[in-house]
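User:
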Amino acid sequence: MSFFLLLLATVAQSGPYEVTLRLPAGGLFAQEEMQIEYRVVDTSRVDPLFGPAAVIRAQTASRITMPSMAGMPALTETAHPEGIPGEYGIHPFFPHGGEYLLTLQITPPAAEAFTVTFPLTVADPNPARRRPPPPFTLELKASPSSPSAARPVKLRFTVRRRDTRQIVKEFELQHERLFHLILVDRELSRFYHEHPTLQSDGSFLLTHSFLDPGEYHLFADVAPAGAGGQVLLTKLQVGGRTPHLMAPPPPSTLATFPADPVTAGRTLRLTATLKDPNIEPYLGARGHLILIHEDAETFVHCHPDESVPSPADQVPFVARFPKPGRYQGWAQFQRNGRVETVRTQFLAQ
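Assistant: Predicted structure:
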């Protein structure tokens, strides 16, 4: 990307080294590959005409985290040199909007490594922008290929890199699992949270039975090694004529959420009040909250805010509603060795 398109600059200092971070003039957006560049100079070596000397051939690596969501794997990337001496670039892909932290570890030639950090504000996906596709794709093979409700179906998932079509075989743990699979029907009346198992060929396998026929949306929440969290969507049509072939589990009343409207496009806390505070850790956290917009395609996976203490009967979730509209929510907690799902709704304005 041209230097002149990267106008939003921030400077950090570490000893004699100065790092200038430049972001796209329009800001950073989730769900698209972004271009971030930075310039590294040595202020102890100053040319009267050109200023501080550019640091060339440095070994540079980046690590992007989201402090408010400690369970989200870090996004790591080795920077590449740009055409101008001392200029380096990375191409991160942010899974969703919010406040991130960029940590750059830079090792100049024949010198010790140093670290600088920059806060990053990432906006939610903008439907008006022409966005490139995400860097990963999700393939689904069902057996039988035309599944029917109330009958087991084998679901095989394969994650590939979009540019090379290479199968991704290395993943990082996200809350104790390599693959979180959320399955909902188009009307958002059915909800399943499953964990397919990794196979020797890099695919993930799950045997599942759907309660009802219809169109199902399958969200794969995975973290390819070094790429951070990714949410990949695929769809599956389930046949059958008679609905409610099997009785659904009774809804849990373990927790309640505030009924007031929430603000879209802002990171906020949604506090669940527990009727029974004696819950157990579930997948490495006190609970999990899944939010899906009424379009059945906008997906948010919320984790508890563990940065501040909270009463035993309260679980504050860090949440962000990317756009206005109604959201169906499913909060999951574990009590007496059994996972309970609390169904709730939110209106984002």
